Amino acid sequence: MPMTVDLAGQVALVTGAGRNIGRAIAETLGANGATVVFTDMRREDAEAAAASTPGAIGLALDVSDEVAVARVLDEVTARFGRLDLVVNNAGINTAHRVPIDRFPRSEWDRIIAIDLTGVFLVSRAAAIAMRPRRSGRIINISSVAGLVPLRLQSAFTAAKAGVVNLTKAMAIELGGDGILVNAIAPGSILTDGTRKLFYDESGAASESASRMLSHVPLARPGSCADIAYATLFLAAPESAYITGHVLTVDGGWTAGYTRDF
Best exposed site among 11, 82, 105, 115 by fewest CB in 10 Å? Predict the structure, then answer.
């Protein structure tokens, strides 16, 4: 039986909601009664995803664009009269899996702009909207890479680690106004991107997946639904005394290695 909570009357905005984890989160919030704003870089992707959820709308949003963020948040509050929940899911990584001395500056700037600055910009705008009502939830999607550094991903690791402490800083700052701020740290999740990178049928990808999953006690990748339900838990009225927390959803990856040494 699917997990259910009562989000009736609440307005939620999810970034990067056109597909994969973001879409699963947005659809799950909508299935539990929230009015959901699906946002994505491409308006057509956001609108197509939103079409599956009654009452939802899709809007274009580049989270690294300060002007666009302010415009979208203003549009949402003007249209619905409130904003109760923001999920900062939009994020990118890179195929440049190289040591820092060979890592392109352009890729560093691109990843930091979306994965860290984007979380700051959307959260700042959300806090402005939520403070007058003295309530709200901000949920940030970080990564196990923000908790345990990974090789050859300096920009992604730095950005996601930044999201972890940004989450905690915001929780301290906004708690007095009734705004809860938490994060989720996914492990290896089966998405369009990871399926192509790790989980397709080619020998090289299969070998990479096996090596990675040897560090995961559950020995399998997670699903987008796993992250959606973790988000639903943090959005639920019943989790009203949780803030500044990072919920790790990684099949036990960061608990420690399962292999003998």
Answer: 105
